[in-house]
Amino acid sequence: MSQIAQPQPRGSFRVSALGGGHGLSATLSALRVIAAEHLTAIVTVADDGGSSGRLREDMDVLPPGDLRMALAALCDDTEWGRTWAQVMQHRFRSREGVTGSLDDHAMGNLLIVALWELIGDSVEGLRWAGTLLGARGQVLPMSRQPLTMSGVVEPMEGESGSEPPFNNGDRLSSQVALATAGSLGRLRDVQLHPAEASACAEALTAIELSDWVVLGPGSWYTSVLPHLLLPELRDALYETEARRCIVMNLTPHTDETAGMSPAEHLRVLHHYAPGLRVHRIIADPTSVPLQEREEFAEAAELLGAKVRYHDVAKAGQPDVHDPLRLAIAFSEVFGD
Q1: Hey, which of 44, 129, 275, 329 would disulfide with 20, CB 3.0 to 4.6 Å?
Q2: Beta strands 148-154 and 39-43: pairing type?
Q3: Residue 55 contacts by C-beta under 8 Å, 6 or more apart in sequence?
Q4: Is the distance from CB of 292 to CB of 263 less than 8 angstroms?
Q5: Which residues are within 8 A (CB) of 223 and not within 5 positions of it... i.e. 6 or more apart?
Q6: C-alpha gyration radius of the chain
Q7: Distance of CA 230 to the CA centre of its chain
Q8: Can you tell me the distance from the alpha carbon of 213 to that of 40, in angstroms, rounded to the nearest whole number?
Q9: Which residues lie across from 244 on neighbouring strands?
Q10: What is the pTM of this model?
């Protein structure tokens, strides 16, 4: 790591990063190095599994998990920041032989929900959480309204084995179900519900005022795509004068995108948001095989984008983005 050149801080850039889960955390960990205080995370709110799903169902609140992860990623690399990041990510475990009501709940999820209940506003509650953590930048939900996702899975032709647990054309109505749909077939007709949900006004303003907007990496259908399915948010991405950048996944074949090439990932975005114009795409050289580079470049052209290849994977962990290497890539792309 010591041999990697340090990125140059570029505090004048205003950057909005859209996504959710571990992918958005990787982006934020990199961007906080170069975007200083002018960084906004805009986070999906359709999670319906695990601790977030339980709190959403029990308390009628936004699913806090992806918001928690974004806050933790924005903590400084200081003793204070590292400690609070660990506290936010800590999950409770009952002693052996006991099943407790707190099992698998993340401390950060409970803290965020407590702030929402006390303050009565999701955005203001997240602001207070960020202040407590000393987070660099702000975290916003893509909507103040909890959303759900659905999609149709079509079995891939030529598949053998046992019969799939659904009929051709059945709609899966859960983000958790969509997140593993790649093992069942290809997703199509992915939707957000309610379709008429409003986007978070503060998120729309952040996008309007940004110099750069970043999408990805992350679960392509359930973390990246949702931002293009919410009409007001999609329109904001169409209309902003900010330049747009996509960060590709290091491994294209995930539980929800099994069998999809990197080019197909880009075509999915173009299909659901044909008016989206992108300026740069960051991809690790190992994630796009040489024989697929021409097809990938053609798919990028559908979005109006130029591809920039950067070594952004962690040494010894080819499926994990290295925050410092990704920061260097952002620094070079933003200054291009």
Answers
A1: 44
A2: unpaired
A3: 61, 63, 64, 105, 109, 110, 113
A4: yes
A5: 19, 20, 21, 23, 24, 44, 66
A6: 19
A7: 15
A8: 9
A9: 213
A10: 0.91
